[in-house]
Amino acid sequence: MSYERENIKRLKAYTPGEQPRAAEIIKLNTNENPYPPVEAIMHSLTEVQGEQLRKYPPATAQEFRDSAAKAHDVQSSQIIATNGSDELLRLAITCYCEPSGDTEGTQGGLGLTDPTYSLYNVLANIHDTPMFVVPLEDEYAMPADLAKQWNDAGCKLAMIVNPHAPSGRAYSLDQIKQIASDFNGIIIVDEAYADFAEEDAVELVKENSGFDNVLISRTLSKGYSLAGLRFGYGIAPAPIIDTLDKARDSYNTDYISQKLATAAINAREDVAKSWDKVKSERSRVEKALVAMGYKVYPSQTNFLLAMPPVDAPDAETIYQKLAEKYIFIRHFDHPNMCDKIRISMGTPAQNDALLKALEELK
Ligand SMILES: *Cc1c(COP(=O)(O)O)cnc(C)c1O
């Protein structure tokens, strides 16, 4: 006897990248920052006292919100703290998308592109909301009529990831602006990789920006070396934050994560040194891959998407052969992606080991 709802029975859950246990492995598969959290973050961990854990944490993470507001030059009322940015995405679907039982066709559903971050689809299926998926064009370009297609389908919420995952491509601020102004619902710009990019869309959520429908999603997992902490946040006009706030768990972020996240945002300048190192490795590894005959997609993230040359084994074989050498990269079983590999940027030594192993595979 199964007691599950039908949509949960059908649900294909999100597949996270592997987290192997062996000590000697090189892990370039889940876009973590290869450098440890900065000293200021680790120091604030040593200050945690039992008395603070005895009590419930600040419900709205006010201290973090104040720091994040300062960092982005917005009001605290424009920030919401969440348990990873994954929770923010889930909250937005809860608040803005209609379950399919209450609606016709794709009316009230979620607008996506293909490919995109594969979790969006899972979250929509959990909520049982309809999706309208628009294929990207060559080189992962967004179609000019993307927002119109979502409008015609009746989508109330849409998600784009910029810079794009899994390709690394950055769309210009002008393009994001155009979509925000054309789209009739709320547009989430998932900026999980903005720390490694040249532009972001924060100016679109500022007061007097002329937009009331943009929600930016940020995470401390990648840029701040805190994937294990689970802390993300949203930046949006205050009315959107108020809506999301109503639907979150009362204590969705715990005391320790609030404290460390606040230290992290306040140490932004120091943290940014790792962003520079990652970016410089990105261009070094890109050049080395191109020299080996790989097609490498221009990236403004901390990873590279690369298609092996004809004289190399196919992408899936490369993934397996590297795993045998304890080097883990990502291969996606997706029609548009299965001929490519995705490599997170490691330390210079880790990247050298990867390049040497790829050289030996040819
Ligand atoms: C890594 C990633 C996230 C998840 O961030 P968490 O804060 O760790 O939940 C969200 N969106 C994209 C596109 C990502 O790559």
Overview of this protein structure:
It is built from 13 helices and 12 strands. The chain has 362 residues and is an alpha/beta fold. The chain has 2 domains: 6-37 and 269-361, Aspartate Aminotransferase, domain 1; 39-268, Type I PLP-dependent aspartate aminotransferase-like (Major domain) (Aspartate Aminotransferase, domain 2), CATH 3.40.640. The strands form 3 sheets. The protein has a 7-stranded mixed sheet, with helices on both faces. It has a 3-stranded antiparallel sheet with strand order 9-10-12. Strands 1-11 form a two-stranded parallel ribbon. It is globular. The termini are far apart. Bound molecules: pyridoxal-5'-phosphate (PLP). Pyridoxal-5'-phosphate is lined by residues 31, 84-86, 117, 161, 165, 190, 192, 219, 221-222, 227, 232.
Measured on Cα atoms, how large is the radius of gyration? Answer: 21 Å
- CATH evolutionary superfamily of the largest domain: Type I PLP-dependent aspartate aminotransferase-like (Major domain)
Order of strands, main sheet, comes to: 2-8-7-6-5-3-4
* Structural class assignment: alpha/beta
Spatial gap, N to C terminus: 52 Å
Number of strands: 12
Spans where pLDDT lies below 50 across 5 or more residues = none
Helix content: 25-40%
Molecular shape: globular
Roughly what is the average pLDDT, rounded to an integer? 96
What is the count of distinct domains?
2
Task: Assign the CATH class of the largest domain.
Answer: Alpha Beta
Query: Which topology of the largest domain does CATH recognise?
Result: Aspartate Aminotransferase, domain 2
Per DSSP, what share of the residues sits in E-state strands of 2 or more residues? 5-15%
Number of helices: 13
Oligomeric organization of the protein chains: single chain
The distinct bound ligands, ions and cofactors come out as:
pyridoxal-5'-phosphate
The CATH architecture of the largest domain: 3-Layer(aba) Sandwich
Largest sheet: 7 strands, mixed
